[in-house]
Amino acid sequence: MITEYLQFIARTFRIYDGVIPSIEKVLSKTGSDSIVDLCSGASGPWSHLLRHTDRIDVVLTDKYPNLASFERISADSGGRISFSRDSVDATDVPEKYDGMRTIFTGLHHFHPEPARKILQDAAEKGRAIGIFEFTEHSLPAILSALLGIPLMVLLFTPFITPFKLSRLFWTYIIPVTPLLIMWDGVISDLRTYSVAELRDLVSPIKTENYSWEIGKQKSGVLGINITYLIGCPDKQA
Ligand SMILES: C[S@@+](CC[C@H](N)C(=O)[O-])C[C@H]1O[C@@H](n2cnc3c(N)ncnc32)[C@H](O)[C@@H]1O
């Protein structure tokens, strides 16, 4: 229910729309049109983001794949979104996945050592990677999660797909879902890497001919701060 809520929010508020130009720039540089989305959860923002570009194809992957969700999103995508039925660990992605890797709202799940492994794996295998986080370790973000998320869950639950009676039950009869998603939001904000922490993560990675770009940009209808980290081979691998 948490990842379906995340997908709904990303789509409704176009949270990640602003990062498409950066992704397209990397794809042009690496001569690829393929995305391998890691930690895809309930599929994340890609089904929505693909409306902004007709050149990109996406493979959804997760260590614990939500196959029901992947199948639904793939069937509605006109062949542009496929998915892996097998578990794909973001810290050691099989060589056969040769597109640019993306992780939306996911890096904060990893402690520094596995987070660095995710970045190192991409760099060592010569794959581009884009990490995008709309959560943020800041007082305004934590206060908005504390106060805003329960209200948003109560307001938006009837519109979240797929329709599930259980979602209504656990939101309006026994309100576990608003509290759980609020807790997840606050902890995610607290755990989100800052720009300086992301720089520290990549600094020991000494792969040659590979560059990192780290920063923040405003995105979406709410102008939310997205923290991004983009790794890209200097020349095509
Ligand atoms: C917060 S969800 C990300 C949601 C999704 N990207 C989105 O934008 O809605 C984090 C996901 O990471 C997955 N995950 C956790 N550890 C992983 C790992 N080592 N490799 C790949 N996926 C992992 C979880 O199964 C979960 O679906």
UniProtKB/TrEMBL annotation:
Keywords: Membrane, Transmembrane, Transmembrane helix. The lineage of its organism: Bacteria, Pseudomonadati, Thermodesulfobacteriota, Desulfobulbia, Desulfobulbales. The chain crosses the membrane at residues 141-163, 169-187. The keyword Membrane applies. It comes from the Bacteria. This is Methyltransferase domain-containing protein.
